[in-house]
Amino acid sequence: MRRLVAQTRLHPADLILPVFVREGIDEPQPIGAMPGVVQHTIESLVAEAHRCVDAGLGGIMLFGVPLAKDAEGSGADDPEGILNVATRAVVDAVGDRLVVMTDLCLDEFTSHGHCGVLDAAGRVDNDATLQRYAAMGLAQAHAGAHVLGLSGMMDGQVGHVRAALDAEGFQDVVILAYTAKYTSGLYGPFREAVASSLVGDRAAYQQDPPNATEALRELAQDLAEGADIIMVKPAGPHLDIVAAVAAASPVPVAAYQISGEYSQIIAAADRGWIDRDRVMLESLIGIRRAGAQLILTYFALDAAALL
Ligand SMILES: NCc1[nH]cc(CCC(=O)O)c1CC(=O)O
């Protein structure tokens, strides 16, 4: 893929691998809708983290799949919860050589599958959820996470978690803010990956795809609250937003090539309709060219091997 006049280049260090770790399994479990991606045991996750180091990746983003869920998502801030145990294991193994990120959101841990706790009417309670995010962020910081990925889309989440971290001496823990997270059909395979219990959708707290100006308002808000890295997600269908946010952001911009973007390429390639590696690299170059300095992608290891 190298060209003499190429202005856009991909480097393994630009890539971050999202990974799933599931409680209570003895062997890694395949994810039907994401061929090539598995739910890891702690042991296989640590092995994967070593592969990320060897490949020169920039980082790893951990998602936990707990055995038990409840309305409050109490596994999220339990130091013995699967995500916090896994974070400690990865940080102990490779934390000096790989940036370790954790998903900070309740949806994997709640029985109803929403990103926050619910009020009496069954709606997501924004401000009550902020308290839960602060507790979850502190648990992740105590577990050694370097970067917290605030993906829940509650208003005020960045400022609230930042204040909680600073109050406990975690000034150096970085906040990656999901600034523009559009509601999307492409999250489908992820719901299987995390055994989501969600009924309905997240339209009340994720963004409406036809709305382009909200992304810049969210950017200003997240920066004012102390975001260190800004994320746009999904990446492929929203490259104009990646570009607009990158042009306006004084801090690094990341983009997330999500589960459905991955699975579409795999499925078409499996049918022999497209060349998997070529389309994979083309999709990543497009995201990079739009202005993302970091790309979260399930292709991270495969792409790094070709760069
Ligand atoms: N914890 C929320 C979260 N963080 C990342 C993803 C999706 C990532 C993907 O589809 O690959 C989701 C799920 C959602 O918003 O429905």
- Helix-residue proportion: 25-40%
Strand percentage = 15-25%
CATH class: Alpha Beta
Topology, number of strands: 10
Assign the structural class, choosing from mainly alpha, mainly beta, alpha/beta, alpha+beta, or little secondary structure: alpha/beta
* Radius of gyration over all CA atoms, rounded: 18 Å
CATH homologous superfamily descriptor: Aldolase class I
Give the total of domains: 1
Instruction: Compute the average pLDDT.
Output: 95
- The name of the CATH topology is TIM Barrel
How would you describe the shape? globular
Treating each run of at least 4 consecutive H or I residues as one helix, how many helices? Answer: 10
Strands of the biggest beta sheet: in what spatial order?
1-4-5-6-7-8-9-10
Low-confidence stretches: none
Return the CATH architecture.
Alpha-Beta Barrel
Family: Belongs to the ALAD family.
Catalytic activity: 2 5-aminolevulinate = porphobilinogen + 2 H2O + H(+)
Pfam family, one: ALAD
Protein name: Delta-aminolevulinic acid dehydratase
3D architecture notes:
The structure is a single chain. This protein has helices at 42-55, 82-94, 126-143, 157-167, 188-193, 213-225, 239-248, 259-270, 276-290, 300-306, and strands at 15-22, 29-30, 38-40, 59-65, 99-104, 147-150, 174-181, 229-233, 253-257, 294-297. It has 307 residues and is of the alpha/beta class. The chain has one domain (12-229): Aldolase class I (TIM Barrel), CATH 3.20.20. It has an eight-stranded parallel β-barrel, surrounded by nine helices. Helix 4 (157-167) links the parallel strand 6 and strand 7. It is globular and about 55 Å long. The chain starts with 14 loop residues before the first strand and ends with a helix. The site of ligand PBG has 10 residues, from loops.
